Amino acid sequence: MTDQIHSSHDSGVAVLTIDAPATRNALTLDLSAQLAEAVSRAEADKSVHALVITGAPPAFCAGADLDTLAGAQEDGLRAIYDGFLSVARCSLPTIAAVGGAAVGAGLNLALAADVRIMGPKAKFVARFLDLGIHPGGGMTWMIQRLVGPQKAAAMTLFGEVVGAEAAVECGLALRLVEGDLIDAARELAKPAVGAPRDVLLATKRTLRHTAGLTDHSAAVDAEIGPQLASLTAPAFTERLARLKASMTGH
After folding, report:
1. 216: which residues sit within 8 A by CB, 6+ positions away?
2. pTM above 0.85, yes or no
3. Within the chain, where are the H helices?
4. CA angle at residue 91 from 81 to 95, to 5 degrees?
């Protein structure tokens, strides 16, 4: 079967699955391009409020295809990055459902999501230095922001493998899921699906903006414009009316 990205859009959630079983879902140039296109289609679909990225079992993503890496120049590397960077740049809320190993560029793909949930057999492996190559794709920036400098150094410089329970303990993943990962991701996404899409996307933009601020008053200023806009939108008026009706029993 041809390696591909399977995409399904249902009940407000787009699920993108890397399906390349022979290579444990390693990212080729073609797969990275397919992934970027699938993310773009999900963003353009007004019915989609959240995006889930996963890999066909047993792996999440084994990293970049090594033959592709071996002959890559800068343009080739950036083309490989394009898949996981499309997730990092996605305007929708994103969830990585990690059921197996996320290695190298596969780790980057998981880190690119807003939230990670993990199955019992999942693990995060940097692996770059083990292969004799420097980390890429912004890995060192993403990992330090999530777990701090010491844990980031342990994973990046000393090759520490982080399993599912340890990932939750250090804040690298939100939770460990014993059951179906996609069902769990859909359940996690339900509040986003129920929210007004324009307010949801504005809130994600604000989260990105305020993450780089150091002053509380600057965050207040950043939030007040979009909050005022949401207060005058029909969605708020309708929801407020329903809430009042439910409280009065009418």
Report:
1. none
2. yes
3. 29-44, 66-70, 74-88, 105-112, 139-156, 164-169, 181-194, 197-210, 216-231, 234-248
4. 75
Distance CA 152, CA 158 (A): 9
Residue of 27, 35, 179, 25 whose CA lies nearest to 113: 35
CB 40 within 8 A of CB 14: no
H or E segment and range at residue 9: strand 4-10
| Residue that has been written with the tokens 């996963």 in this structure | 54
The separation between CA 172 and the C-alpha centre of its own chain, rounded to angstroms, equals: 12
Confidence of residue 250 (pLDDT cuts 50, 70, 90): low
Residues 13-61: tens digit of each pLDDT: 999 999 999 999 999 999 999 999 999 999 999 999 999 999 999 999 9
Q: 98 near 117, Cβ under 8 Å?
A: yes
